[in-house]
Design a protein that fits this description.
Length: about 260
């Protein structure tokens, strides 16, 4: 059943590539929109919004020339400062950024105390520091145990990572954990929607609809519009298709979606 997860990965890659700005391909209109969005994230980050700080750091990841190193440093300092003040979501975000930079020791120093204090998402990311390629003392069993415990204690992120860790060895169980993650947190629904598609289009479409309308994650909306508009129409009707394009018009106020929403 490796096919299930390969399909999910392929869909994820296609949709993310479709939703991310590409180097050298931005029109002035898109550039203005992205710049405005970036400034919104910076303001939210300054208010110690951990998710916004993380997205500031990642915003222009595909366009190195557009990366503002000063903003990245400031966002990281805000996360670290908030972490020291006991905001464990900031610890989790800072630890994740360290892992992305392959600085596993620094990540563990931040994540371990947050995990010990009961912030389960930090435990999940701490688990990643033992699973990633190149991690010192790599221990996939320890990582999986951390995911499992976090999931049992109500972490949607833990259930999602547990499902991914189980993978093709027990695909139905893996999809079950992904479903549980989506039920707990709409931000986890996009990945579940991509991986659940082979098991049933209706449930997968429902998850992608939730991702599109309950988060500001563009990928779920684009996947519906680009690949599954027919199924969306068959399951929910024409009004839901127009609602999808209205949402895309709201998130990305250029292109054809505003016209299709009428």
């Amino acid at each position: 059943m490796k096919k299930l997860f390969l399909i999910g990965v392929v869909f994820l890659a296609i949709v993310v590539s479709a939703s991310e700005p590409k180097k050298g391909e931005l029109s002035p209109e898109k550039e203005a929109f992205l710049s405005a969005r970036y400034e919104e994230l910076k303001k939210s980050c300054a208010q110690k919004d951990a998710r916004a700080c993380k997205r500031v750091i990642l915003f222009y990841q595909k366009q190195p020339k557009k990366q503002n190193e000063k903003d990245i440093r400031e966002a990281m300092q805000i996360l670290l400062g908030a972490c020291k003040d006991g905001k464990f979501d900031a610890c989790a975000a800072a630890g994740e950024m360290h892992i992305n930079n392959k600085d596993f020791i620094a990540a563990r120093e931040i994540l371990s105390p947050a995990c010990d204090n009961g912030y389960q998402d930090a435990c999940v990311i701490y688990g990643r520091s033992f699973k990633e390629q190149g991690a010192p003392g790599k221990d996939e069993k320890r990582a999986k145990k951390l995911y499992e415990t976090a999931c049992e204690k109500g972490s949607a992120l833990g259930c999602e990572h547990l499902g991914l860790a189980i993978g093709s060895s027990a695909p139905e169980q893996a999809v079950g954990y992904m479903r549980k993650a989506c039920e707990m947190d709409a931000w986890r629904c996009f990945r579940f929607g991509t991986m659940a598609m082979p098991y049933g289009a209706e449930e997968a479409i429902k998850a992608l609809v939730r991702s599109c309308h309950e988060t500001d994650m563009l990928a779920g909306c684009i996947m519906l519009a680009k690949y599954h508009e027919k199924e969306l129409r068959e399951i929910y009707g024409e009004d839901e298709v127009k609602r999808l394009h209205a949402r895309l018009c709201e998130l990305v106020p250029y292109g054809e979606h505003c016209e299709k929403a009428r």
